[in-house]
TrEMBL record:
Top-level taxon of the source organism: Bacteria
Function: Catalyzes the attachment of L-aspartate to tRNA(Asp) in a two-step reaction: L-aspartate is first activated by ATP to form Asp-AMP and then transferred to the acceptor end of tRNA(Asp).
Record's GO cellular component terms: cytoplasm
Residues given in the record as L-aspartate binding sites: E175, R221, H447, R493
Record's protein name: Aspartate--tRNA ligase
Keywords attached to this entry: Aminoacyl-tRNA synthetase, ATP-binding, Cytoplasm, Ligase, Nucleotide-binding, Protein biosynthesis
Domain Aminoacyl-transfer RNA synthetases class-II family profile: start-end pairs: 147-557
SUBUNIT field: Homodimer.
Amino acid sequence: MMQNRTHTCGELRLSDAGKQVKISGWMENVRVVSANLAFVVVRDFYGTTQVVAETEDMVNTFKGITKESTISVEGAVRERDSKTDKMATGDIEIVPAKVEVLGRCQHSELPFQINRSREADEAQRLKYRYLDLRNPAVKKNIILRCNVVAALRKSMTEHGFLEITTPILTASSPEGARDYLVPARNHPGKFYALPQAPQQFKQLLMTSGFDRYFQIAPCFRDEDARADRSPGEFYQLDMEMAFASQEDVFAVLEDVLPPIFAQYGTYDRASSAPFTRIPYNEAMENYGSDKPDLRIDLRVQDVTAVLGGCGFEPFAEGNLVKAVKVSDFHETRKFIDKTLADVETVSGGKAYWFRMDENGELVGGISKFVNLIKEKVVEALSLKANDFVALSAGKRDAALKTAGVLVKTLGAAVPGHMDKEQYAFCWIVDFPMYEIGDESGELEFCHNPFSMPAGGLDVLLKAERGEIDPLTITADQYDLVCNGVELSSGAVRNHDPEIMIKAFELVRLGEEDVKAKFPAMYNAFTYGAPPHAGIAPGVDRMVMLLAGEDSIREIIPFPMNKNAQDVMMSAPSEVTQKQLDELHIQITKHEE
């Protein structure tokens, strides 16, 4: 028994009738029926309980309390005349003998109705997040998050992993995103950086002789917000294994994740081991994306050879033409126009279309061009009545990107092409080690520079001698994708200093550059490092999928807005001149 309650608001049942009890919580609602009858709903973390005031004095007491004040109610439990299954305590009610205000709500008007807060403007929800979280529908996502994290910890420990925390204040490192910098007061002009990921520390742990490491790691990246990415900070299930291969990493996650998704997910079906494996190039060609949603049965087909000469200008020589065929299509022209406009907004590329009607005629969209080579097109795409064909065109990356968006948009929108109620996992493997940078026009690392190139030193030497194109080198790197969402990237690490130096030399960085950028890791590897591999599934994205939410902000207790602002705490905020002086920092105004 606690001082302010004998029971929670979700605890009392018909078997408690006749008991004298005390509950505490927020006064959610008061419905006054008459001068001597009112129904009151009291809510706490665990649920709601109805209280019935049956005297004029008690009715006036509740009328004098503002909604969302915290109160305690002492009284007798009795059976309700009109039971309800809308609340767990729907068989009983409390007749109060004493009511005490524990914390008065000093506002007669709330920013939004608590139980309908999800319908409110997002800015209001974030500003008054402590009220938003009182909504049971919002709170349940945070409870889910807690349960999932606890289950992950338990499973990782059972698999022999040690939970080890790594530093938050560390050195700035070129890992792809912008760092959050922290000025060092005792070292004028120098800065700590908040870790974008514990990447180097977990590899150093392997070099230190720890065999299996994990942590629920906070990561900090100065990135713009997206639906599946929160700006500022995020959390990941970070793990690393010594003397391990790609297969070892896959085996662990394929054992850890499916039971958690099956137990806590909105859907009760999850892929079982082994997960489907798709090489990166195959994923791009068949799905138009390295994050394919395997719940969708649509695929991308290359029709450049067929449609390249049809006379339609966007399909002219030099451009690739990609097609996505949708069978049993009966949607309206309005639907087609809106869908393709949405695709263009997301992908930045224009999409085209035609369809085969029930009489076998090609109609609509660009059909006048396609009809010139109708037989070839019908054969190439195996067209049947009521087939719809969406097309993209352009240079390879642009055409594939638009085609990928077509697959996901049409798959989700057209009935019969998406088995939605499941969690479909897949591994994307054999990523390119290098790419040509968009801005530099020169060879750059495609993803993680610490990944081991498939073929090791030998393949790097062949590229250096010009015997092979470095763009054909793949890395022992892999992504875990679920329902079209990238949960994590991982890799077999490059633990050999000689191979590491050669990998960096191909992107015009020498040994001294590597030593300067990654001094601790490079030096540690010179003392004998074990082969090791790891991965880091994103906890936030994982819980978002489990909760069936479209926005990652719905599963974070105190999220920032899209501009990386905490409007509740007014962060980021200005600081005093004294604080700036202590840190040897001078603010200069940027001139337009």
